[in-house]
Amino acid sequence: MTGTETARSSDLLSPTEHSRDSAQMHYVYPVVSRRAGGVSIGINLNVNNACNWRCLYCQVPDLTRGSAPSVDLPLLERELRDFLRQILVGDFMQRRVPPEARHLNDIALSGNGEPTSAAEFAEVIDLIARVRQDMQISNSVKTVLITNGSLIHRPAVQRGLKRLAKISGEVWFKLDRASEEGMRRVNDTEIRLSSVRQNLETALALCPLWIQTCWFVLDGKAPSARDEDDYLDFLRELPASGTRPLGVLLYGVARASSQPEAGRLGNLTLTQLNAFAARIAALGLTVKVTP
Fold first, then answer.
1. What CATH number should be reported for the domain holding residue 38?
2. Is the dihedral of CA 82, 38, 212, 217 positive or negative?
3. Which domain holds residue 116?
4. Where are the alpha helices (DSSP H) in the chain?
5. How many C-beta atoms lie closer than 10 Å to residue 14's C-beta?
6. What is the tens place of the pLDDT at every residue in 177-215?
7. How far is the C-alpha of 163 from the C-alpha of 174, rounded, in Å?
8. Per the structure, how many domains does the chain have?
9. Do the Cβ atoms of 126 and 77 come closer than 8 Å?
10. What's the CA gap between 281 and 13, in Å, rounded?
11. Model pLDDT for residues 7-50, shown as the tens digit of each residue
12. At what angle do helices 121-134 and 155-164 cross, to 10 degrees?
């Protein structure tokens, strides 16, 4: 292999590297998503690395407690339009993306903290809708909100979710554990389980939704039988609300945590993940497993 070929290979995006600086933009960054199965255009509203939760597996360095800063909407719109042009008519796919992943899967609000904490969240969704329409983005390209769901009760967030549903939108709602003790341990949050349920049911009523669950080894131990049973009990009660999620995205730790607990984390085997997935599927839910 020549030096030039080596350099080109090193420039390729990979599922284990989600650098927010890879496009040298303030808000917009591309990733090859292992769960989405293609290129995801990420939008990072939390450029201050602030979040209201602190999940043990979070890869964000220098994570702080807090909310997203004020969003420069004109800058975000320019960056999104520019990057979509690079994807759709430029050579970005050929230069930076492995051949098997060279298709645009989604535009995703994720980034370095909880995106719904941005005061301009609803305006951001309107902005994405406008850009999608102007650039004739196919309905096959999803608009995804990756969220811990803790701020769904806010009216502005709910307005954003209603709009999101109209632009091929999906909510990926974090549920790593379904007990208050489990959420304190894994997500470092004091949220009440009743609030999680209420927020989930509200989001389900507004927009198609996947539950996303990170299931991993902590201190050499897999999640306990109690953890599994709590989770399944929580899911069993969902039909009572009259709505159903699209399914569960069950995944392991793919990228190194930047939190102090990083050395305490490990991955389950695919056999272990599939065994838990089978218990979830027995409830009538679709489950997608990503080790």
1. 3.20.20.70
2. negative
3. 3-290
4. 3-11, 73-88, 92-96, 121-134, 155-164, 180-187, 193-206, 225-236, 270-281
5. 12
6. 999 999 999 999 999 999 999 999 999 999 999 999 999
7. 20
8. 1
9. no
10. 32
11. 355 566 655 554 555 567 999 998 887 665 688 899 999 999 99
12. 20
